[in-house]
Every structure is written in C-alpha cells, then in structure tokens.
Design brief:
This protein has 140 residues and is an all-alpha fold. The chain has one domain: Four Helix Bundle (Hemerythrin (Met), subunit A), CATH 1.20.120. Helices cover 74% and strands 0% of the residues. It has five helices and no strands. Helix 2 runs antiparallel to helix 3 and helix 3 packs antiparallel against helix 4. The longest helix is centred in the C-terminal third of the chain and has 30 residues. The radius of gyration is 16 Å and the shape is elongated.
Length: 140
C-alpha cells in the first residue's frame, strides 16, 4: 500500500537535530508497519497493537520535543504542546472506534497517522529547528 507509505527524505524531513530526526525516522517506520499490516488485512487486534505502539512512541517523542522547546525558550512551545495533546487525543479516539464490525476504519486510522506524522514534521517541527537555527543554538 504505497498511498500511506512514508519514505524518509533527508532533504525534505531532516531538521538538523539528530535525535529528533532519528525519532522521526522511527515514527515513520512504525506508521509504515501499520500501513503494511492493514494492506495485508490484519485483524483488528494486530492493528490495535501497532497503533498503540505508535501512540506510545509518539508520546515519548513529543515529551522530548517539549523538553527541547522549554530548555531553549521556543516561543510557540505552548501551542506546540497543545497540538501534541490534540493529536494524541484524536488518534486515541479514532483507535477506539476500531472493531471487527468496523475493520474498514483501520484504513482511515492509517491515513490519519500518515498525515499527522508527515505534516507535523514538515510544519510544526520545522518551526522549532528554524527558531533554534536563528538563535544560533545547536540542539543535541
């Protein structure tokens, strides 16, 4: 299922913050594992386990980003943190709708995870790296 397959492109996704870039690659890999499993008609429990793994990893990653923003005085930290909370809440709510009777929701949830991963890196996280660069801060 190539539609929901994320491919790391250093020129497009790299923020220049090695720890975040590494975590972003890992998050993409987890989303791709879910996408492949859904494409192969995995059962709801398998899909749910993969989704929970993504959510757990995302929560850890978001905490890392939030710490980085606080330490370096990123002015958009409060909104960025609120965005993290919203993403996790929306993903959890979507995941709770997954059931054998509604297994087609796995495709919708996969699309959500793919979109939030890509868009969050390209927009919200890019703002952090641009701020740090302007401040002359080399994170990591």
């Amino acid at each position: 299922m190539k539609k929901f397959h994320l491919v790391w492109d250093e020129n497009r996704y790299a923020l220049g913050i090695p720890s975040l870039d590494s975590e972003h690659r890992s998050l993409m890999n987890l989303v791709n594992e879910l996408s492949e499993a859904v494409a192969q008609d995995c059962d709801c429990e398998q899909a749910r386990q993969k989704m929970e793994k993504i959510l757990d990893f995302a929560a850890m990653h978001f905490a890392h980003e939030e710490d980085l923003m606080r330490r370096h005085g990123f002015p958009g930290a409060e909104q960025h943190t609120a965005d993290h909370e919203k993403l996790l809440r929306e993903a959890t709510n979507l995941m709770e709708t997954l059931s054998p009777e509604h297994s087609n929701r796995a495709l919708l949830i996969t699309a959500f995870f793919t979109d939030f991963t890509e868009n969050h890196i390209l927009h919200e996280d890019r703002a952090i790296s641009q701020y740090l660069e302007k401040q002359g801060i080399r994170a990591d």
